[in-house]
Amino acid sequence: MKKDQALAELLGIMCGDGCLSSSKSQVKYYIYCSGNSLKDDDYMERYVPNLFYKVFGKLVNSHKRKDENTIFIKFSDKEMFKRFQELEIPVGKKYSLLKIPDFVLKSKCRQLAFVRGLFDTDGCVILSKQHRTQAYYPRIEIKSKNYSFLNSVMLLLKNHGFTGSVSRNADNYRLEVAGFKNLTLWRSVIGSSNKRNLIQLHTASKTYLNAF
């Protein structure tokens, strides 16, 4: 993977389960991202740290909160913090400020890498019954509290040949890309770097094909 695409994927991760926070009193500039220690262990222990190293040349480590089933990366780096700011990652409470960075929009490959990072942190694959007795119909979902942000991601996906929609879902919003055609295209051009989602994509494809 080229360095600019690795950065785009990292930006997707930061828009998903990442954040920037600063402490002026302690002169700290924190970069933070997290996952589920039961489902995202390999992703957060190996893949995400490798992305940070590939893009910024910095070794970072993950940590676990066993009582919360949380695995996270947290460190202070002023230069990297400022770089993320320049790339339009919000500081503090981010949801109302989320947007696809201009850096990502300038390249189709970066766009797909960004969506992969977002999917691997805030997305999943589910199967629905569609009036059958067994669940077989694949739906790729990404959730966020920001409708405008998800809608811009959906418009980006449509430019790459996907179909789908964004709708209200309880206290947040849900981007949904449904059907086997979309699933096949997703596996081909976006894929996943998270073992959890890779398994879900493979299982969804196999289940759909076995239903006919």
Element string (H = helix, E = strand): HEEHEEHHHEEHEEHH
Query: What's the CATH topology name of the largest domain?
Result: Endonuclease I-creI
Overall structural domain count? 2
Sketch the major β-sheet: 4 strands, antiparallel
Outline the structure in words.
The chain is built from 8 helices and 8 strands, in the order αββαββαααββαββαα. A hairpin with a 4-residue loop joins β1 and β2. The strands form 2 sheets. Strands 1-2-4-3 form a 4-stranded antiparallel β-sheet. By secondary structure, it is of the alpha+beta class. The longest helix is centred in the N-terminal third of the chain and has 16 residues, at 41-56. It folds into 2 domains: 3-98, Homing endonucleases (Endonuclease I-creI, Roll), CATH 3.10.28; 117-210, Roll (Endonuclease I-creI), CATH 3.10.28.10.
Annotation keywords:
Endonuclease I-creI; 212 residues; 2 domains; 8 helices; single chain; 4-stranded antiparallel sheet; globular; alpha+beta; 46% helix
Indicate the topology.
Blueprint: H1 3-17, E1 18-23, E2 28-36, H2 41-56, E3 62-65, E4 70-76, H3 78-86, H4 102-105, H5 108-122, E5 123-128, E6 137-144, H6 147-159, E7 165-169, E8 172-178, H7 180-189, H8 195-210
Antiparallel strand pairs: 1-2, 2-4, 3-4, 5-6, 6-8, 7-8
Helix pairs in contact: 1-2, 1-5, 7-8
Task: Describe the structure concisely for a colleague.
With 212 residues, the protein is an alpha+beta fold. It has helices at residues 3-17, 41-56, 78-86, 102-105, 108-122, 147-159, 180-189, 195-210; strands at residues 18-23, 28-36, 62-65, 70-76, 123-128, 137-144, 165-169, 172-178.
